[in-house]
Automatic annotation (TrEMBL), chains A, B:
Signal peptide span: none
This protein's name: Tryptophan synthase beta chain-like PALP domain-containing protein
SUPFAM superfamilies: Tryptophan synthase beta subunit-like PLP-dependent enzymes (SSF53686)
Source organism per UniProt: Solanum tuberosum (Potato)
Top-rank taxon: Eukaryota
Length: 436, 436
């Protein structure tokens, strides 16, 4: 049995961003057949699954991972990803088998006018950034395990190039630009770690990075940007001023805007954390990730759920910037009029791309105060022996908080992966003390 | 051709510590045939090679490594280690081949009254400590590479159990005790890291550890000992008081003394650093190791030279406690009347076991001052993002010192492995600053 629609070649694919309704012949079961050769971006947000659809099988060559569909604006869980070999023949054969087994309707491709588009994060991202990014180590500590009453695994993204996980997304974004786009450079406005990461990735590609930084950013973060060759342009602290300044640079230079979180290339890049982490410690049943703009947790959640759909994804958020917690409670993106936390990397708000993923794939947001963050930071230095910034230590703070330890919901979370997201912190007071 | 002396069984071996002269039939070339089944200690210092001996071939089953012989109290370099399979037959066949090829005299075993004893550090140590010790990660940094003008590899022993490399030796020592010895516990006098490590290893074996600590030791080190269940007994700061107090504990308890450096079990345990490091980064051509009592650098040098005889071994030592530098210059163990350095872990002196190894296998001692140590520590925190103690950062200080960078001897050292030995440092001033 050979279906003629299989004759579509990969060349006929022209993008993941199209959206469409199911074909009129739509039935309860659907088989999606991917011809995606190598989407530049690596992720597109999933669109609505009509209520008539019961389940979806997706045939993907094994290098792809991370599927995300929505129904009624919620994550659609009844999806089965079936791996095939990369060869077109294998994909076709596998799809045919599913059709025979399930009686599903075939959705052959992404550009024939009747398909469900979906989110896909792929291994090409991992391959793309591999020559540049560090595979960061995972540390464990019996001392912290006994404090937490659980086995903890620490993914040390503070050791990532540029001192934070941000390099993964920045690197993916920059190396997925075509040469014409890349020549004019990139621009962003960032509180720091994304800025440093983008500067470094741009330097590696040999293109300019224009970085708009609010005047009140920590000195060490500005220094990082300069160290990596970024062109620093200061703005006022307000988001309006930051955006206006960035727009002016865009107009002046023709550079490409690379947002820090709300961007498919960024989300896909950060998702490589899960790929490494769950290979390094496959027994992990729960991931705890700092949340700010939601780029990291979106990528981490998509990739982790693709590998292990039963995995718990928890966000850790500071009390003084708890927009994600409020957004989840309100069922819509909720922004704050002001933020106040020592965790300077966690002051951004969710965006329209990250919000649906956080809403549907993040099981809970654990809110901690600054005192808990500092205590966790201290444990990182004194027990783990690593230098983390406040934003980086918040995952450990969440695991040690009453909100987590005393909640019976989490009693089954026994193997917890914590992303220590960054280590760019100003320790001037420490060095001054040695001069005495 | 089968030599009857091969009929000695492994059971006839009764210890590595015997010493003897060459047999009367001694000739210029010697073939040593090892029947060592599993020396508990893993290392015995080599004894004199008579002047009549030109070269020595040693047949060892592949699980052994680290050969060390002396002539005129100097390392005897004309030694060739030939690996065989573990099976006795293979060792015999290999030895026979050497005899045929070289016309050497055979020294069949270690207990027949006429042999050369030698130092041997073995893989059994690695197997013994593996269930307990961390395989610490190796970090790299483009930023530090460009400062140093070389490729640097950082072995993060600050992530070792107990916060320092000391756990390797302590663990080897404690788990090589037989049950009768072990029951009565262990005792040591230590400035801190060895004490914590010994406490932890003793706890893992379920035996008591009695720790004599000078009153002026940093608080965090005392806290570590207590955290790991060690019984703390304070002494005066002087070495005499420390030794007297330890001797009293020995008499009272019948415990086994485990010195911090000058001990074969300790040296062998620390040697596992090289085994891991050179497997993680085989391109390393130079190792830089902090030196204090010399236990770590002895083990590191023996193991590294066994793997790659051409490797450079450099010691890093603080100006205010430069006894190893002076000892090398004077050609004899030289102790200092007082020491003064921020590197509190590097105040001990070489011992009679570590000195010959340092004298003959350590190519040079690079001396740095406290200011250079603090600067290196800062780079570890701000660039590598790891919390090291002053003693732990000294290897980086040495690589960045004029004494190293401007010495043409080191121009060929391009892939440098630096052991960041520990991370137990009091950061109270940092945490106090957050309370403001």
């Amino acid at each position: 049995m050979r279906n003629p629609v299989f004759n579509l070649s990969p060349d006929s694919f022209d993008g993941l961003s199209e959206t469409n309704s199911l074909p009129p012949r739509g039935m309860g079961k659907v088989c999606v057949y991917s011809t995606i050769p190598d989407p530049t971006c690596g992720i597109t947000l999933g669109m609505e699954v009509p209520s008539s659809v019961e389940s979806i099988s997706v045939i993907l060559a094994t290098e792809y991972w991370g599927i995300f569909l929505l129904r009624d604006r919620k994550f659609f869980p009844a999806i089965k990803v079936i791996s095939s070999e990369t060869l077109m023949q294998s994909r076709e054969d596998t799809a045919n088998k599913v059709l025979q087994d399930t009686g599903a309707v075939l959705i052959p491709s992404f550009n024939d006018g009747h398909f469900i588009s979906f989110a896909i994060v792929n291994f090409h991202t991992q391959v793309r950034i591999k020559p540049f990014a560090q595979q960061t180590p995972v540390l464990t500590s019996d001392t912290l395990d006994s404090i937490a009453g659980r086995k903890l695994y620490f993914k040390c993204e503070c050791f990532q190039k540029g001192g934070a996980f941000k390099f993964r997304g920045a690197c993916n974004a920059i190396f997925s630009l075509d040469d014409d786009q890349a020549t004019k450079g990139v621009v962003t406005h960032s509180s720091g770690n994304h800025a440093a990461a983008l500067s470094l990735a741009a330097k590696l590609r040999g293109i300019p990075a224009y970085i708009v930084i609010p005047k009140d950013a920590p000195k060490c973060k500005v220094a990082n940007v300069k160290r990596y060759g970024g062109h620093v342009i200061f703005s006022e602290p307000s988001m309006q001023s930051r955006e206006d300044t960035a727009n002016k640079v865009l107009q002046d230079t023709g550079a490409v805007l690379i947002p820090s979180s709300n961007d498919g290339r960024i989300i896909s890049g950060q998702g490589t954390i899960s790929l490494e982490f769950l290979e390094q410690a496959s027994e992990i049943d729960t991931l705890i990730v700092p949340i700010s703009g939601g780029g990291m947790i979106s990528g981490v959640a998509l990739a982790a759920k693709a590998i292990n759909p039963a995995i718990h994804i928890l966000a850790a958020e500071p009390m003084g910037a708890n927009d994600a917690f409020q957004s989840k409670s309100n069922g819509r993106i909720t922004k704050l009029s002001e933020v106040n936390t020592i965790a300077d990397g966690l002051r951004a708000f969710l965006g329209d791309l990250t919000w649906p993923i956080v809403r549907d794939l993040v099981d809970d947001v654990i809110v901690v105060d600054d005192k808990e963050i500092i205590q966790a930071m201290k444990l990182c230095y004194e027990v783990l022996k690593i230098a983390v910034e406040p934003s980086g230590a918040i995952g450990l703070a969440a695991v040690l908080s009453d909100g987590f330890l005393k909640n019976p919901v989490y009693s089954e979370c026994n193997h917890i992966g914590i992303v220590l997201s960054g280590g760019n912190v100003d320790l001037g007071v420490l060095w001054n003390s040695f001069d005495k």
